[in-house]
Amino acid sequence: MRKAFDANVPKLKPRLRAAGAPAAPAPEPEAVVAPAAEAVAVAETPAAAEPVAPEALASPVAPAAEPRGAAVERGRVAIHAAAEAAAQVAAVEPPAPAPVAAPVARAAAPAVAPIAPAAEVPAAPQGDVQERRERLQKIKRRVAEAAKPAPRIEPVPADPGRAAESVLGLVKDLEVELLRAREREEALRADLDEARQELARAAGEARGATERLAVAEKELEDKRGVLSDLLGEMDALEQERDESVRRAQALSALDEERARLLDDVTRRADEEARLRAEREQEVERLSEELRAGAADGARLRTAVGELARERDQLAAELDRLRAERDELASAKRALEQVHAALAQARARLG
C-alpha cells in the first residue's frame, strides 16, 4: 500500500531560474491534488492497489491553463473535501459509552450436571451473564475508540508546494485511520461470532435441562404407579384380615376340641396384623418420598423459569448486537459514500 502511494504521488522539487531567463510555467496544483486523491482511493480499497504504469509517471506536468489564484483555491477545496469526509466517518459511528469502573473477571461457565432421580436441580450459574456483560463492555470500549473526534485541520497554506505537502499528510492520516477502523471492525466481528456461539451453547444447555426435567417427571409418574399398586395390595390385605377375624370369631364358639385350631388362627391373625403394620410404615415412607418428589418437581419448574428468563436476556443481548452490527453497516455505507465523493472530486480536479 505504501509503495502504491509513493508511486501515485510525484516528487516535488523546486526549480531555480536565472534572473534573465524567462519564467517557466508553474505546475498546476490540480496535478498534485489529483494523485493525492487517487492515493486516498487506493489506500481505502479492501485489496492492495496495483502501482501506476510507468508511462503515467513519466508524462510531464501540463502547464497552467488558468490563473494561479484559481488553482490554489481548487486545491484548498479538495483538502477541505477530504477533511469533511473524515469528519463524516467519525460522525456516523456511535457515541462512546460511560467509562467502566473496574473490569469484571471472566468466569468459566460450569457445565450443568445431569439430574439424578428425585434430586435437587442446581441453580443456573451467574458466570455466563457476567462474561457476556464483560464482552459487551469490551465491544462498547472498541466502539468508543472508533468514535474519537477527527483531528483538527490546519489552515491550508497559500503556497502550492506546502498545500501539496499538507494534502499528503492528510492522506497518510486517513490511511492510518482506515487501517485502525478495519482492525476495530475485525475485532467487533470476532466478538459478535463469540457471542453467537455463547448463545447457541446456552440454548443447548436449556434444551438439556428441559429433557432432564421430562425424565424426572416420567420417573415421578412411575413412582406414582408403584404407590397405586401398593395401595391395592394394602386393600387386599385389609380384606383378608377382616375375613380372618370373622373366621376366628366363628372358631371361638367351638368346643375345646377346636381350641388348638382357634389358637392357631389367632396366632395367624397376629402375624397378619404385624405385616399390616409393616405395610403401613412402608406406605408412610412412600408418601414421604412422594412429597419429596413433588418438592423436587417444584424446584425443577423454578429452574426452568430461570432458564427461560436467561434465554430472554440472551435474546435481548442478541438484538442489541444486531443493532450494533446495523450501525457498523451504516458506517460502512457512509465510508463508501465518502469514497464516491473523493472519486467525484478527483474526476472534477482531473
Question: How does the SSE layout of this entry go?
Answer:
Blueprint: H1 2-8, H2 30-44, H3 54-58, H4 68-92, H5 127-146, H6 160-252, H7 259-349
The largest β sheet comes out as:
none
Q: Give the low-pLDDT segments.
A: 9-68, 89-124
Class based on secondary structure composition and strand pairing? mainly alpha
Strand content: under 5%
Structure description:
The protein has a domain at 161-348. Helix 4 runs antiparallel to helix 7. The protein has helices spanning 2-8, 30-44, 54-58, 68-92, 127-146, 160-252, 259-349. The protein starts with a helix and ends with a helix. Residues 9-68 and 89-124 have low confidence and may be disordered. The protein contains seven helices and no strands. With 350 residues, it is mainly α.
